[in-house]
Design a protein that fits this description.
about 180 residues, mainly alpha, two-stranded antiparallel sheet, two-stranded antiparallel ribbon, elongated
C-alpha cells in the first residue's frame, strides 16, 4: 500500500528553493576561490578547515571530513565549484525552511515531526541519507516488500541529485 503509493505518487507541491541571483552567484564563486587556496578547482578538507579557523571557527577533523563527504557527490571528500554551489543552496534551503517554519504558528509542526520520524525509520544508521539497502529494509519493516526493480524505480523517482541515496529534502518531496 505505502510502497505503491510512493511509487505512483508524483510531487504535487514543490519545495521552495530559490535560485541564486547574479550577485549571490558571484559572491559564492568568490568564496569558492578563497577556499580553493591551491587553485586546483576543488576544495579539500584542509582548505575548508584553514578558512574556518581564520574565521574563528574550530571544528574537529572528523566533522570537517563529514562536511566534505556530504558536499561531494562522488563521496571522495573533494568539492568542485558546482558541488559547492549545490551544497550552499541545500544549506540555504534548509535554513530558509527553518526560518519559515519558526515564523508560522505550529500548524506544520505535526507534519514536520511525522516526516522527521519517518525519515529516521528509513535512515537506519542516522547519517542523513537513505541508501538502497536502508530503503528496502524499512519497507520490509512496514510490511511493504519491494522487488529489486521496484526499489530501483523508487530510488530513480526520489533521488533527484542522482547520488545513489535519498536525503531529507528528496524524501519530503517524494511524500508531499
Amino acid at each position: 500500500m505505502l510502497g505503491t503509493a510512493l511509487l505512483g505518487k508524483k510531487p504535487t507541491k514543490p519545495v521552495k528553493k530559490k535560485a541564486f541571483d547574479e550577485k549571490e552567484l558571484l559572491d559564492l564563486r568568490t568564496a569558492f576561490d578563497l577556499l580553493d587556496t591551491n587553485r586546483d578547482g576543488r576544495i579539500e578538507a584542509n582548505e575548508l578547515q584553514f578558512m574556518l579557523k581564520k574565521l574563528g571557527i574550530d571544528l574537529r577533523d572528523e566533522l570537517i571530513e563529514d562536511l566534505m563527504k556530504e558536499a561531494s557527490h562522488t563521496g571522495n571528500g573533494l568539492v568542485d565549484e558546482a558541488e559547492f554551489l549545490q551544497w550552499v543552496a541545500r544549506i540555504q534551503a534548509l535554513r530558509d525552511e527553518s526560518d519559515d517554519s519558526s515564523n508560522k504558528l505550529e500548524e506544520n509542526d505535526d507534519v514536520t515531526e511525522d516526516l522527521i520520524a519517518a525519515f529516521r525509520v528509513f535512515d537506519r544508521d542516522g547519517n542523513g541519507f537513505i541508501t538502497r539497502d536502508e530503503l528496502q529494509t524499512a519497507m520490509e519493516m512496514i510490511g511493504e516488500s519491494l522487488t529489486d526493480s521496484q526499489v530501483s524505480e523508487l530510488l530513480a523517482i526520489a533521488d533527484l541529485d542522482k547520488d545513489g541515496r535519498i536525503n531529507y529534502e528528496e524524501f519530503t518531496r517524494l511524500l508531499l
